[in-house]
């Protein structure tokens, strides 16, 4: 066992007071880049409701969210994402989540953002937090276009455990090799990964996760000065 620690961070409603996946779809609808804007908003709301109830599947999310990527060229998407970062994401950054990440980085901990949201949306956000590794649901990319399908195991529910283990195996490590392993998350969907670390931290937790944390004696951490609406 190494004396080094590992710190894993969920992204949406954990480091950010919003859901980047939801906000990306809303941004595309609002700017006329998501087909029928009202239909896109309704579908976006429906998926968020299912997610908050713990009923959403990766396939349901991918059909809509990754379909938005498949409808446009990577060049267009990259330009729009810069607008999205400037208008939506960077203004939402708050001090305490950044300080938490910086504390772990300064301590020399191995750090990764582990999010169900696709890597196209989240890679620039993880970089903005200074986290060197992103484990996210990867959209399939073939012949210079997104296909609308998932590539590999989605980083969702039990899939987060699979993906973290795969990443560590590539480094010749397991979670058991660390003196302490932290995972920060707000969502009941992340209980599988919270259960396998030594330091599960329910962070800005949903009511369901807050109740589970109380039952199991997990640390609870509230980071935000304010939270956006649940559909955000």
From TrEMBL:
Gene Ontology molecular function, alphabetical: histidinol-phosphatase activity; metal ion binding
Pathway(s) per entry: Amino-acid biosynthesis; L-histidine biosynthesis; L-histidine from 5-phospho-alpha-D-ribose 1-diphosphate: step 8/9
Catalytic activity: L-histidinol phosphate + H2O = L-histidinol + phosphate
Presence of the UniProt keyword Metal-binding in the record: yes
EC number(s) from the headed UniProt entry: 3.1.3.15
Keyword annotations of the record: Hydrolase, Magnesium, Metal-binding
Domain of life: Bacteria
InterPro entries in alphabetical order: HAD-like_SerB, HAD-like_sf, HAD_hydro_SerB1, HAD_sf
Classification via SUPFAM superfamilies: HAD-like
One Pfam family named in its UniProt record: HAD
Assigned protein family: Belongs to the HAD-like hydrolase superfamily. SerB family.
Record's function text: Catalyzes the dephosphorylation of histidinol-phosphate to histidinol, the direct precursor of histidine.
Protein name as catalogued: Histidinol-phosphatase
């Amino acid at each position: 066992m190494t004396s080094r620690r590992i710190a894993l961070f969920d992204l949406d409603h954990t480091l950010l007071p919003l859901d980047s996946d939801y906000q990306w779809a809303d941004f595309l609808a609002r700017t006329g880049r998501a087909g029928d804007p009202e239909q896109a908003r309704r579908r976006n709301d429906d998926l968020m409701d299912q997610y908050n109830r713990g009923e959403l599947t990766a396939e349901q999310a991918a059909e809509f969210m990754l379909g938005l990527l498949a409808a446009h060229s990577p060049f267009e998407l990259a330009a729009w994402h810069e607008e999205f970062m400037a208008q939506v994401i960077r203004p939402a950054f708050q001090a305490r989540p950044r300080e938490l990440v910086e504390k772990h980085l300064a301590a020399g901990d191995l750090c990764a953002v582990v999010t169900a949201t696709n890597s196209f949306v989240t890679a620039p956000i993880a970089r903005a937090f200074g986290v060197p590794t992103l484990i996210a649901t990867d959209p399939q990319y073939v012949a210079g276009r997104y296909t609308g399908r998932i590539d590999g195991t989605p980083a969702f529910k039990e899939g987060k455990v699979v993906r973290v283990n795969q990443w560590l195996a590539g480094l010749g490590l397991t979670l058991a090799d660390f003196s302490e392993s932290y995972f920060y998350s707000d969502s009941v969907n992340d209980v599988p990964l919270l259960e396998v670390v030594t330091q599960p931290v329910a962070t800005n937790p949903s009511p369901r996760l807050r109740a589970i944390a109380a039952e199991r004696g997990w640390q609870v951490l509230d980071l935000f000065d304010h939270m956006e609406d649940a559909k955000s």
